Amino acid sequence: MIKIQNIARPAVATLAVAMLTGCGLYKKFEMPADTPLQQEYVEAKASEGDARAFGNLQWQDVFTDPMLADLINQALANNVDLANAKLNVDIAHANLRGARMSYFPSLTLTPTGGASSVSNEKLTGWNYTIPLSASWEVDIFGKLLNNKRLAESAEQQAKDYEQAVRSQIIGGVANCYYSIAILQAQLKLSRETAVIWGENVQTMKDYKLAGRTNEAAVVQSQANYLSVLSSITDLEVALDKANNTMSLLLNTMPQKWEVSPEARLVAPAIFRDGVPMRELAARPDVRAAEEALAQAYYTTNIARAAFYPGLSITANYGFTNSFGSFIKNPGDWFASLAGTLVAPIFSRGQNIARLEAAKARQQQSLNTFQYTLLSATAEVSDALTTYDKNNEKGVLLAEQVDNLEKAEYYTKELFAAAGATYLEILTAQSSLLSAQMSQLNCELAKAQAVINLYQSLGGGR
Q1: pLDDT tens digits, residue range 153-204?
Q2: Domain-by-domain residue ranges, the chain?
């Protein structure tokens, strides 16, 4: 008894000291607030969200065009990337279930049997054992707890990634939709212009024969006509690519999507200067980066736990007729209970290496999180600036188009009165077409800025 006590007391003391020093392994992850940016993020997460914020609006309230809404619904139902993202959530949830079940003991049933006989004897001895074994790992230093929390974080990260994919699909379909609309409007304008400019070529030839113009005006009119025909081919290629991109988003065969050339996105009247940090904190990629940091934290805790003892309890219960060197018939019940305490002493530096690597990966995850948050800020700022500046540009272009339409009309009047050359008419027409195309491009840029802002705020939740 004295020897047992002499052995047990140091073991218990060692275990008690280890438990005191290992208390930090049970601490749940908290976002560090070591920099002003991190501090602002922590405070933003703790603040109450604004349900009326642009990123929190339902996508149906942002994209109200019925045809666009139908296309978005098709994409959300059929897109392969989104389907795979949902499967990743299922995988992460299965891993979490496994991590939670690790708290329970494992049960095994291993029946055995055999026969023996004595030399030159017909006597045969049959022996059998039907044991039920249970083994339970006691989580005294948080190894199982950190594994469970790691799995919980991985599941949440998979959900965040799914939301990011969902937001990208909604934004991608909307971008394609309005790109197709603008390209069709530009094609319509270019084809109408090509018809007029084609007639101009013949008119110029007639004027030359009548002595009202010269060969320079004829070849210039032909060059303008060929230029608009060339631009039509470029627009047709761009339109075909936009249609194919839409088909890919909807996971369907390439086809032409009949989008009205008049389709325009009307932005909700909720824009303001700047975006609060709490809206950036709701972005799925920012949340996913935070979960990656949490996983690195729990991985470091698991690496630390490897330095502490592990305790497991094993129990056996069953029925047997084999008792050492003799066989008893009929058999009898048996039971046993044992505990095992394993403390690492020398692991050839493997535990230290794993811990150092885990700490380095945790710092990498922190760096990635900070960069993701800064990138989110830049994306939102870019989208707001693009929208505001294209609004200003749109007003200027509208005035320019109005003036160029008047300039074309007045130049034709002057030509009729022999006060201008036909080259001046061609120049006015070319300038008008260029301004009209720029006006349509500006409309698309405004729509894309709204879409990009909605997406950069994690819209579509």
Answers
A1: 999 999 999 999 999 999 999 999 999 999 999 999 999 999 999 988 988 8
A2: 27-103+139-308+347-456, 106-138+309-343
336/106 Cα distance (integer angstroms): 16
- At residue 25's C-alpha, the angle toward residues 22 and 27, to 5°, is 125
**What are the C-alpha distances in Å from 331 to residues 111, 127, 138, 321, 323?**
14, 9, 33, 4, 9
What's the rounded Cα separation, in Å, for the pair 406 and 412?
10
**Residue 157: what residue type?**
Q
Indicate if the pLDDT at residue 301 is higher than 80: yes
Residue-by-residue DSSP string for 341-386? EE--S--TTHHHHHHHHHHHHHHHHHHHHHHHHHHHHHHHHHHHHH
Instruction: Please give the Cα distance from 210 to 1 (Å, whole number).
Output: 130
Query: Residue 339 — φ and ψ, nearest 5°?
Result: -120, 145
Q: How far apart are CA 229 and CA 435, in angstroms?
A: 17
Task: Please name which of 422, 415, 420 lies closest in space to residue 202, comparing C-alpha atoms.
Answer: 422
Question: In the chain, what's the furthest Cα-to-Cα distance?
Answer: 138
Question: Do residues 5 and 334 lie in contact, with contact meaning Cβ atoms separated by under 8 Å?
Answer: no
Task: Give domain 106-138+309-343's CATH superfamily.
Answer: Outer membrane efflux proteins (OEP) (2.20.200.10)
> Can you spell out the DSSP letters for 157-215?
HHHHHHHHHHHHHHHHHHHHHHHHHHHHHHHHHHHHHHHHHHHHHHHHHHHHHTTSS-H
Least confident piece of the model among 63-77, 131-145, 312-326, 406-420: 312-326
User: In 250-312, which residue ranges form alpha helices assigned H by DSSP?
Assistant: 277-280, 284-305
Report pTM. 0.83
- pLDDT exceeds cutoff 80 at 319: no
Sequence letter at residue 428: A
Per CATH, which fold does 27-103+139-308+347-456 belong to? Outer membrane efflux proteins (OEP) (1.20.1600)
Query: DSSP state, 140?
Result: S
Looking at residue 1, what is its pLDDT?
41
Whether residue 318 has pLDDT greater than 90: no
Residue among 161, 166, 186, 178 at smallest CA distance from 246:
178
> Residue 130: what pLDDT?
77
Nearest Cα neighbor of 408 from 388, 393, 390, 427 is 427
Spatial CB neighbours of 285, under 8 Å, sequence gap ≥ 6: 160, 164, 372, 376, 458
